[in-house]
Amino acid sequence: MHSDCSHKKTLILITITNIQNRLLKMIEPIIEVTLNDHKFFKKTIKEISQIINEINLKPQTSEEKFSLLRDIIVLTYKISVYIGVVEKHRKLEEETLYPFLEKQKYVNEAKILRRQHRKIVEYVNDMKNIIAEHRESLKPVENIAEEIIEKFVSIKTLYLKHMNLEEKLIFKILSK
After folding, report:
1. Is pTM, for the whole model, over 0.85?
2. What is the pLDDT of residues 134-173, one digit of tens each?
3. Do the Cβ atoms of 34 and 93 come closer than 8 Å?
4. How many separate domains does the chain show?
């Protein structure tokens, strides 16, 4: 009788392990896309930060004003591309990765990530609105640049923190 119970426990453990392995195999492509997106985000954040660090918000000469205008165009383009990928990335994670994390007993972490996503969406929408408003604005380009930079700096810190938490959880799961 004792060995029969032990045999059932072993079968249950094997079944659970097989299910976990199949779940992991199913989520691997999602993890790969997530990590590739993170590489893109980090590279883009670095490029945008470099533009921000080099931008001259107090142009004096016509050449400096033209340079500022060029920098703003490049900056808004990179931010627009970044925003488009962020929105697709968020949807993918919300529909696939976070439910998987919850099944792996990372319920609180998934809640934190979702809460961060909501805040990121707020920032992204604010940036989209700033860019859209200024397409037809007569404000000086320096003011437009300052608003865009301020909003980007706000999202940058949160997004880097967010990606670090996701990666920490992913690598923890993969190392099991």
Report:
1. no
2. 767 777 778 878 888 888 888 899 999 999 999 999 988 8
3. yes
4. 1
